[in-house]
TrEMBL record:
Gene3D superfamilies for the chain: NagB/RpiA/CoA transferase-like (3.40.50.10420)
Family according to the record: Belongs to the 5-formyltetrahydrofolate cyclo-ligase family.
Top EC class, one word: ligase
Example of a GO MF term: 5-formyltetrahydrofolate cyclo-ligase activity
GO biological process entries: folic acid-containing compound biosynthetic process; tetrahydrofolate interconversion
Residues annotated for substrate binding in this entry: E58
EC number: 6.3.3.2
KW rRNA processing (keyword) present: no
Keyword terms: ATP-binding, Ligase, Magnesium, Metal-binding, Nucleotide-binding
The protein, known as: 5-formyltetrahydrofolate cyclo-ligase
A family per Pfam: 5-FTHF_cyc-lig
Catalytic reactions of this protein: (6S)-5-formyl-5,6,7,8-tetrahydrofolate + ATP = (6R)-5,10-methenyltetrahydrofolate + ADP + phosphate
Amino acid sequence: MTPREQKAALRMERLALRDSMTPEARIEASLRMLRHAGDAIEFAPGQVISGFWPIRSEVDIRPLMARLRERGARLCLPVILDKKTIVFRELVAGAPTVETGFGTTGPGEDAAVLDPDIMLVPLSAFDKAGHRIGYGAGYYDRAIERLRQKGHMPRLIGIAFDCQEVASVPAEPHDVALDAMLTESGLRIFGLG
């Protein structure tokens, strides 16, 4: 099996496990993530943090994002522009959101486009070394590469449930490792020690 085929199999397996969680279990796990990371994610006031509104059975990080805003973060959400590109539009309290593609909602076209300093990254699977498997469309990989080409190096924090962890993610040249991983068990920082 090629790395791409291995990733596809792991993606299906881990998303099926995530889908099998009850809504109550997902809510409780999401709230535990808030307790683990709401005050632990380090940033300076005014720094930009990208999050996401949950789709399907994803973690609901809206309470975490609200806490980060209370601590002084500027927030943004990904918006799909075309089949290859996402940008991050500023999420201003009270501003309306619109459908933004791939089942997501986010700020409308009048919202400012921001370059995140920290990205809270949804994913389908991850391993203990900080490698991730996305949803297969490559939006985040391309967005991260575009930011890096501009000289902007956002910290990448993966967001998932414990059941999405795998023993090892097959590596491909375009893959970008995470700096940290947040699950209901806690916030893990990679590359230390």
